[in-house]
């Protein structure tokens, strides 16, 4: 019984050594494995041709989409501003954020971020 290539998604792998096989260039009847010289008939690729073609641009655009969403989320976070002097540049305004500590006894911590130089510091309540 002859060996046939393993199909994973839109890719074909050599049945002898597991090397990823190149897609045929259109003129050759077989694809030869670079590692062990196994000859895979080009017909093995025929039913996955459509998938292979749409694959290259589908992936990067999905990545780009994800990056865009993350940036949007970050920009959407608006903190209240309070009159607090920055210890680094002495700018009189800072962003204010209150963080509840894990244990109730510890109270909460105020996080300040300078509006001007983005220096951050914290004050325990
Ligand atoms: Zn091989
Ligand atoms: Zn500052």
From TrEMBL:
InterPro entries: Rpa12/Rpb9/Rpc10/TFS, Zn_ribbon_RPA12_C, Zn_ribbon_RPB9, Znf_TFIIS. GO terms for molecular function: DNA-directed RNA polymerase activity; nucleic acid binding; zinc ion binding. It is found in: Nucleus. A zinc finger (C4-type) spans 14-36. GO terms for cellular component: nuclear DNA-directed RNA polymerase complex. CDD domains: Zn-ribbon_RPA12. Zn(2+) 1 binds at residues 14, 17, 33, 36. This is DNA-directed RNA polymerase subunit. It comes from Coniophora puteana (strain RWD-64-598).
């Amino acid at each position: 019984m002859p060996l046939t290539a393993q199909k994973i998604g839109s890719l074909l792998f050599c049945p002898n050594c597991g090397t990823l096989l190149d897609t045929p260039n259109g003129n050759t009847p077989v694809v030869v494995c670079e590692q062990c010289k196994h000859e895979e008939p080009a017909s093995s690729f025929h039913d996955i041709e459509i998938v292979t073609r749409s694959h290259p641009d589908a992936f990067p655009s999905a990545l780009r989409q994800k990056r865009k969403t993350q940036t949007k989320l970050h920009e959407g976070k608006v903190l209240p501003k309070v009159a607090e002097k920055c210890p680094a540049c002495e700018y009189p305004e800072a962003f204010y954020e209150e963080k509840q500590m894990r244990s109730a006894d510890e109270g909460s911590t105020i996080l300040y971020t300078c509006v001007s130089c983005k220096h951050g510091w914290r004050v325990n309540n």
